Amino acid sequence: MQQRRLGNLEVSAIGLGCMGMSSGYVPPADTQQMIALIRAAVDRGVTFFDTAEAYGPFANEKLVGAALAPCRDRVVIATKFGFDIDPKTGERRGGVNSRPEHVKAVVEASLERLGVDVIDLLYQHRVDPAVPIEDVAGAVKGLIREGKVKHFGLSEAGAQTIRRAHAVQPVAAVQSEYSLWWRGPETEILPTLEELGIGFVPFSPLGAGFLTGRIDETTKFDSPDFRTIVPRFAPEALKANMALVDLVRAAAARRTRWAPSAPSCWGRTAASSPAAISSWTAASRPPTGTASSRRSDRKVCASGPAPYRVGEHTQQVLRELGYDAGRIRALQSAQVIEIPGGIQTPGRRRSAGIRAKLAARRSRRAQRRGGGKAAKTSRRIARWLRVKHENQKEVS
């Protein structure tokens, strides 16, 4: 298993998001089966596990803690605070709560449920508009000083919030939804994280199950399944977005892959992401998928298509799949997916100067890790881009 860095925290390139094992979907999963699954993931090289007090509430932290107790020294556990839940009774009081005293109480309770002495990565689950982010970061900084938390993270935070928090306590990672179905982080979040040296943890790489190809406009969800209230899972939205599933299937077939693996591979390379939080359910219990953000779901129009724009090659593929010109024109969005033989990494066009700096940074990292062929290649690319940048400056 390849490794990635979230700030100073090293984790496996693929993580296991455990929310769906205890909440969010139906029917509830068997506890012993889930413990066996988590341990099997460890045996396969996964070292990054994601949970939260809100999942259950509390039940998921207990499950993850019990499953990872025999191998605690080999894994990284991330959990979250931020919703207004009574740390003792589990009563959901509604809304968010990141008051410093509440954060400390949540951490004490999470440590006990997880059965650990320290939390490896502590996220703020959702930003609390009533509490300045500087106060939240300060509270976590105090917990780090006390030895109860190792690293600080944010989930679904905006670029300015990230900057303000990072100024008080270095942020190791930001977790946001990111997939072929939702590419919002590309606009501001990813450039900000790249600038500040913060890791990115994309969750819901299979679009809460939609990109597995096991869901269509006729799929019905039972009542505690959170997708019953998510606009993008309304029948008309599912129907409009089926073109994206067809594209995933076509790309996977060209690479002889199982369809759900294509968006997962895309997600691990699209933003040079440090880790992809993939849910157990995407592979083992279709059509159930990965954890999704209700907040991000609201950003997509209920009847609108997925966030992508149809490029020339994609139009050709759609025509081969039986889409007429009218349906192709109806697919509107802000991004481009081109799949010449497979889904490609979405590009953010950078200047030669920026690309030269990034290549030089990769070269330095490769040298620190021991050099070798990869380091030599990175140095050659850095030199080539530096010369290109200098030539462009002379021309301009």
Give short descriptive properties of this protein:
globular; TIM Barrel; disordered C terminus; 396 residues; 8-stranded parallel beta sheet; two-stranded antiparallel sheet; alpha/beta
Folded structure, characterized:
- There is one protein chain.
- This protein has helices spanning 31-43, 59-68, 100-114, 133-145, 159-168, 189-196, 235-254, 261-270, 281-284, 294-297, 312-320, 325-330, 352-368, 373-395, and strands at residues 3-6, 9-12, 14-17, 48-50, 76-81, 83-85, 92-96, 119-124, 149-155, 171-177, 199-203, 276-279, 309-310, 336-337.
- The chain is built from 14 helices and 14 strands.
- The model is unreliable at 278-309, 332-349 and 392-396 (pLDDT under 50).
- It has an eight-stranded parallel beta sheet with strand order 11-10-9-8-5-4-3-12. A two-stranded antiparallel sheet has the order 1-2.
- α3 packs across α4.
- With 396 residues, the protein is an alpha/beta fold.
- It has two domains: 3-216 and 258-295, NADP-dependent oxidoreductase domain (TIM Barrel, Alpha-Beta Barrel), CATH 3.20.20.100; 352-395.
How is this fold's topology laid out?
Layout: E1 3-6, E2 9-12, E3 14-17, H1 31-43, E4 48-50, H2 59-68, E5 76-81, E6 83-85, E7 92-96, H3 100-114, E8 119-124, H4 133-145, E9 149-155, H5 159-168, E10 171-177, H6 189-196, E11 199-203, H7 235-254, H8 261-270, E12 276-279, H9 281-284, H10 294-297, E13 309-310, H11 312-320, H12 325-330, E14 336-337, H13 352-368, H14 373-395
Parallel strand pairs: 3-4, 3-12, 4-5, 5-8, 8-9, 9-10, 10-11, 13-14
Antiparallel strand pairs: 1-2, 6-7
Helix pairs in contact: 1-2, 3-4, 4-5, 5-6, 13-14
